[in-house]
């Protein structure tokens, strides 16, 4: 494994254990430069392809999903462990669909539904990008719609 600090591949595993949900192995590593970092090893059942709205296809990238979720959760009271469990849950759900091609809208809907339960502010943040809000009225209409569902 290449060290993110010195860029050398001379690292050793100090500790190795399964994650809490059992879907990955967490490894603590030590580099010859003295840096410590964590890596995760996950099972990938099949190569998932994401079909974009314009028809273009690209490989599913868990890191890209993770980044977008962490942006929505920025400065929210959600700890890293909870966020990682949420990301793993979404990734597993996509693999369990049993399809090799998944639309980006399916992924976006899954994330939005999960964030709605996890953190309402993160839900609105993610929706603003996913649904491409352009003006203040787009936010207002979306939030009003949420309030309608809560009253039922």
How would you describe the overall organization of this protein?
It is a single chain. The chain has about 150 residues and is of the alpha+beta class. The protein has five helices and six strands, in the order E-E-E-E-E-H-H-E-H-H-H. The strands form two sheets. The chain has a three-stranded antiparallel sheet, with no helix packed on it. Helix 3 (about 105-120) packs antiparallel against helix 4 (about 120-130).
Lay out the secondary structure.
Blueprint: E1 11-18, E2 24-31, E3 36-42, E4 49-51, E5 57-59, H1 62-73, H2 80-96, E6 101-103, H3 104-118, H4 120-130, H5 136-151
Helix pairs in contact: 1-2, 1-4, 3-4
Q: What keyword list fits this structure?
A:
152 residues; alpha+beta; 2 domains; three-stranded antiparallel β-sheet; three-stranded mixed β-sheet; 6 strands; 47% helix; 21% strand; globular
Q: Taking all residues together, what is the mean pLDDT?
A: 87
CA distance, first residue to last residue: 52 Å
- The strands making up the biggest β-sheet line up spatially as 1-2-3
Low-pLDDT runs: none
- Tell me the number of structural domains: 2
Work out the helicity level.
40-55%
Topology order in helix (H) and strand (E) letters:
EEEEEHHEHHH
The count of DSSP E runs of length 2 or more, i.e. the number of strands, is: 6
**What is the helix tally?**
5
Strand content: 15-25%
- Rg on CA atoms, Å: 18 Å
Shape: globular
Judged by helices, strands and strand pairing, the structural class is alpha+beta
């Amino acid at each position: 494994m290449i060290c993110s600090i010195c860029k050398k591949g001379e690292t050793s595993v100090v500790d190795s254990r399964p994650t809490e949900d059992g879907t990955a192995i967490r490894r603590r590593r030590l580099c010859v430069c003295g840096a410590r970092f964590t890596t995760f090893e996950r099972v990938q059942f099949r190569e998932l392809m994401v079909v974009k709205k314009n028809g273009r296809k690209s490989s599913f990238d868990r890191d890209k999903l993770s980044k977008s979720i962490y942006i929505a959760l920025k400065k929210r009271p959600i700890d890293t462990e909870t966020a990682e469990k949420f990301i793993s849950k979404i990734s597993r759900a996509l693999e369990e669909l049993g399809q090799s091609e998944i639309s980006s809208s399916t992924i976006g809907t899954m994330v939005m539904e999960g964030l709605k339960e996890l953190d309402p502010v993160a839900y609105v943040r993610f929706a603003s990008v996913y649904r491409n809000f352009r003006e203040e009225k787009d936010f207002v209409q979306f939030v009003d719609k949420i309030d309608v569902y809560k009253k039922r």
